[in-house]
Write a structure and sequence with these properties.
This protein has 111 residues and is α+β, with helices and mostly antiparallel strands. The chain has two helices and six strands, in the order αβαβββββ.
């Protein structure tokens, strides 16, 4: 259900950015730390876009990996999904070293 609400927010942002023009493609990125499915977001986006100027538009989300730094031992590692478990000391206290979330970078329109 979370992917559906995010897809609605992406659609709303795309339509607002298009200014009434037909949307052909929306590009952005999704941080792996969010444990969301880019395919599921794209599926919901396509369903919600029906009957709007974004109907048939492609949603292209790049999956970005975000490293973490352990607050206990300083190890830098790639967390698995959204779990920050240090492979060196087992601590879950960590600082994420990149941007997280879902971000729309561009909206392509017809014409």
């Amino acid at each position: 259900m979370h992917e559906s609400s995010l897809a609605k927010q992406v659609l709303d942002a795309a339509l607002a950015g298009a200014g009434g023009a037909r949307v052909t493609r929306v590009r952005g990125w999704l941080a792996e730390t969010e444990s969301l499915s880019g395919d599921s977001i794209a599926f919901h986006f396509a369903a919600l876009a029906q009957g709007t100027p974004a109907e048939g538009a492609r949603l292209e989300l790049e999956l970005r990996h975000v490293e973490a730094r352990c607050a206990s031992c300083g190890e830098t590692y790639a967390p698995e999904h959204h779990v920050t478990l240090c492979p060196r000391c087992g601590s879950t206290a960590a600082e994420l070293l990149g941007e997280t979330g879902l971000y729309v970078e561009s909206v392509d329109v017809e014409g």
